[in-house]
Amino acid sequence: MNACPERIVHYMHEYLDGEISREHELELKFHLQSCVDCQKHMHELSDVVAFIKGAAHVKAPTGFKKSVMERLPKEKSHAGVSR
Amino acid sequence: MDALVNKRIKQVLKGDKDAFAEIVDLYKHKLFQVCFRMLGNRHEAEDIAQEAFVRAFINIHTFDQKRKFSTWLYRIATNLCIDRIRKKKPDYYLDAEVAGTEGLNMYSQIATAEELPEEELMKLELQDRIQYEIRRLPDKYRSAIVLKYMEELSLQEISEILELPLGTVKTRIHRGREALRKQLSKQSNFL
């Protein structure tokens, strides 16, 4: 795509994981100021994170617990341990 | 929370099934959600999440109470999901139940491999779209991404759940984000 060092993309992910060192962060920021392609890449990754975090919480259907309890083996909990 | 859970576990170990019902109540939404996001189908997610609780009950004596119960439970559930994904045929979902899916239409049920044309994608509601993109991720990236962004777990916890080194988890999340970026940027006006 271009001649940017591979580590720049790696730093983007470190940044997104909140695990970037001060040194890497400075290098990333400095690079992004001068590189439109990497800026776009970084924006797209941030948008991916925002997109995926937009997922609504999903709830277990009603009657879920009852069904689990009905599926439990009839014997005591530690029966069948050493089969 | 952990102290309460450990108390309930001790009761279960003594043969008190009702104590297990309380454990189910505490974790049922989390477990159902992870199964649903992994499998993409409510009917199947319900089956697998229930099975995970049953396995947890049967094997509860093997749980080390010094560890986090949710991690152990997630591990059982994600292993079951991965097994199910491996066994399943691509057309498995075609006759899946759509009734009572609370706003999730047929698009949420589409098999992973199937790619929708752009004009169809445009019609999807945001939640269906998110689910669709998650489903298209390769399995090993999907589990890491789901645990990180939908269950909001730390990288360390994800590493314990998936029984993978921390470095591998990071790589999978990085690749998962890149894969999603490519999926989404194919569309002119999305990203």
TrEMBL record, chain B:
UniProt entry tagged with the keyword Ligase: no
Gene3D superfamilies given in the database record: 1.10.1740.10, Winged helix-like DNA-binding domain superfamily/Winged helix DNA-binding domain
Short name of one Pfam family: Sigma70_r2
Keyword Transmembrane helix recorded: no
Cited NCBIfam families: PRK09641.1, sigma70-ECF, SigW_bacill
UniProt family annotation: Belongs to the sigma-70 factor family. ECF subfamily.
Name of this protein: RNA polymerase sigma factor
Source organism (scientific name): Psychrobacillus glaciei
Taxon lineage: Bacteria, Bacillati, Bacillota, Bacilli, Bacillales
